[in-house]
Design brief:
single chain; 4-stranded antiparallel sheet; 52% helix; alpha+beta; Alpha-Beta Plaits
Length: 427
């Protein structure tokens, strides 16, 4: 019989510890993976959030720097620069009354007016050529067609009208990943000189400035970090999983051994290794039910060592125990694999033989008696002991309780002893 079958047939109620721990191990390994993934995912999201916040702060800083520069220029009515080849003049300023777009000093040097919008565009072009960043002033009602808004800027401008303070997105353009930040331009008193004709009043959102920052290099570094992080996660999961598995398998093995010892202690006689009475009765009950269902016979045999007290008195209890062990070995060798043998008590043994009639039980009993009589038992001291046994057998009658069958077999055993011992009797 397999261990699982043995445990199922046993009357012992105990937890299947190994199976339980094995299932628990799978859960632990899964939980370990989930925890590590959760921790690293949280860390990844935290780093990603910091990356975005850094870009937002950077975009916001550029925006405010541009706004302050524009405000300074607007407060001073713009800035005049020397007229040199390539210096542009805003044609839109010339349409505004009371604005001098050109002035001349006492030496005849010509200077042209640079207003905040034009200065912003030219600084943006310079920064773009150097690959630093790009910014764009725009409006839903631009004076300059070059200041028309794109999809992101238009969406942002309409959001600003609804009170949204800023907007930002990641955008891929021509193989480059750009971070775009945009915030509104609020009309100042100094702005009304140029934009008052458009109907703006102080405090109105007249447009916005978008800042585009190239993040390709940062994204590449971030992707490399993500690959390293992923490899680290896999390594940690594998390492911790392996450690947990090794430790758990050790405990599973130890639990298995402990469970086996508990099962052995609960089901076996510690001296002979045969079933104890509790386990034997549990198994006999199962066989009784099976035999009743199939209308098969079931017989009980009781076996007792003749004059066992004399052996203990003569050779000592250690030798007596050795004799009991020797008899147990003989009984194991004499019965079938599915027969049930137990130490009933003291020097008394019980055999339950399924599918065995009274006649067959008598034949089995006689074989056991003969085997015992012919067996020489050599003690640890070198002495040779030859023992004899008496046996009583009985077949179960109908659906009677097994205790009744055992009682008759026990009475048959007493009758065998009364008739001179070293014999078999059947009732």
């Amino acid at each position: 019989m397999t261990e699982e079958t043995t445990q199922k047939k046993s009357g012992i109620s105990h937890l299947p510890l190994r199976r339980f721990v094995q299932k628990y191990l799978k859960f632990i390994l899964l939980l370990n993976c989930l925890i590590i993934l959760a921790v690293f995912w949280g860390f990844y999201m935290y780093v990603d959030t910091l990356f975005r916040e850094q870009l937002v702060r950077q975009g916001r800083s550029f925006f405010h720097a541009i706004v302050m520069t524009r405000l300074w220029m607007a407060n001073h009515g713009g800035v005049y620069v020397r007229m040199t080849p390539g210096v542009k003049v805003s044609p839109y300023l010339e349409k505004i009354p009371d604005i001098k777009t050109r002035i001349q000093d006492e030496t005849g040097q010509l200077y042209v007016l640079k207003n905040p919008a034009l200065a912003t565009r030219e600084i943006s072009e310079l920064a773009d050529r150097r690959g630093i960043l790009k910014f764009h002033i725009t409006s839903l009602k631009p004076l300059n067609p070059n200041n028309r808004s794109d999809a992101f800027e238009e969406k942002s401008l309409r959001a600003f009208q609804n009170g949204i303070p800023e907007n930002h997105i990641f955008e891929e353009t021509r193989g480059k990943v750009l971070f775009r930040y945009m915030a509104p331009l609020v009309t100042e008193a100094s702005c009304l000189k140029c934009h008052g004709t458009q109907g703006y009043q102080k405090g109105d959102v007249r447009g916005g400035i978008s800042v585009s920052i190239s993040t390709s290099e940062m994204v590449a570094k971030t992707n490399t970090s993500r690959l390293i992080l992923t490899a680290l996660v896999v390594g940690v999961i594998v390492l911790t999983g392996f450690v947990i598995y090794v430790v758990a398998r050790f405990f599973i093995r130890e639990l298995g051994r402990a469970e086996d010892r508990l099962v052995t202690m609960a089901t076996q006689d510690p001296l002979t290794g045969l079933f104890n009475r509790r386990e034997a009765f549990s198994r006999i009950d199962i066989e009784r039910t099976r035999c009743l269902r199939s209308s098969a016979p079931l017989s009980i045999i009781m076996c007792d060592i003749d004059h066992f007290k004399r052996i203990n008195d003569t050779y000592g209890h250690v030798t007596g125990d050795f004799v009991l062990q020797a008899l147990a070995d003989i009984l194991r060798q004499s019965v079938r694999s599915y027969d049930i043998v137990c130490r009933y008590g003291g020097e008394e043994f019980l055999i339950a033989a399924p599918e065995t009639t009274a006649v067959q039980a008598m034949e089995l009993s006689e074989r056991i008696r003969t085997a015992v009589e012919q067996n020489d038992i050599k003690t640890a001291s070198g002495s040779i002991i030859r023992i004899k046994v008496s046996l009583g057998a009985s077949q179960m009658h109908g659906s009677e309780k097994i205790e009744e069958t055992i009682y008759r077999a026990d009475q048959a055993l007493y009758e065998a002893k009364n008739r001179g011992r070293n014999r078999v009797h059947v009732l």
